[in-house]
Amino acid sequence: MTRSLTRTLLAPALLAVAIAPLALFASAAPGEGKQQGGSEEHRQQHEQRRQALFERAGIDDETRQALEEARREHREAVRELREEHRQRMDEILDEEQREALEAARQELREEQRAERREAMQQRLTALVDSWGLSDADREALREAREAIYADMQALREGDFDSRQERREAMRALREEHQAALAEILSDEQLEEMRALLSRHGQPGKGRDGRKGKDGTD
C-alpha cells in the first residue's frame, strides 16, 4: 500500500523533473525564437547548413541566387494566400462564429496536450518502476521537482537586459537541474530518461518532421 501511494505521488513529480530541463526553453521566454522562423542565431545556423549543402553538391553562385529568389517568391506567395484565406473566412463567418471556432480550437489543443502529458507520464512511471528506486530516492525526486518548479517560476518572472542574458540564465539553470538529477539517478538512468524524451517530441523540426525541397530544414 505504501509503495502504491508513493508511486501515485511520484508520477507527476517524475514527469515534471524529467521534462523541466527541456520545457525550460519553451516556457521561460514565451515567443522567443518563434517569430519569422526562429532567433537570429537559429537563422544563421540554418543558412550555414544550406550553404554547406550547396558547397558539397557543387551548386554554383548563380544557381544559389536563383534558388534564393525562388524561396523568396514562395514565401511571398504563401503570405498572400494566407491573407486571402483570412479575408475569405471573415466574409463567411460572423464574429460570434469566429469566437466559437477559436474557443473550440483552444479546447481541442488543451485536450491533445492533456493526452500527450498522460501518455508521457505513463511511460515515465513505467521507466522509474523498472529502476526499483528506494523510497528515499523517490522522495528526493519529488523534492527536486519542487525546486525545479520554483527556479523556473523565478526565471519566468525575472527581468533581463537582453535575450543573451536570458539564454545564459536558462543554460545555467538547466545545468543546475541536470546536476541535481545526477545526484539521484545513475548515468544509465539519466540516459534512459533522455532517450525516452528524445523519442517523443524532438525539437527543431517542422510539424510533419520533413525537410525543405532543397534538403534543408
UniProtKB/TrEMBL annotation:
The protein's name in its UniProt record: Zinc resistance-associated protein
Top-level lineage group: Bacteria
Compositionally biased intervals (Basic and acidic residues): 39-85, 205-217
Region (Disordered): 30-85, 193-217
Signal peptide: 1-28
Annotated organism of origin: Halomonas gemina
Keywords attached to this entry: Signal
Coiled-coil parts of chain: none
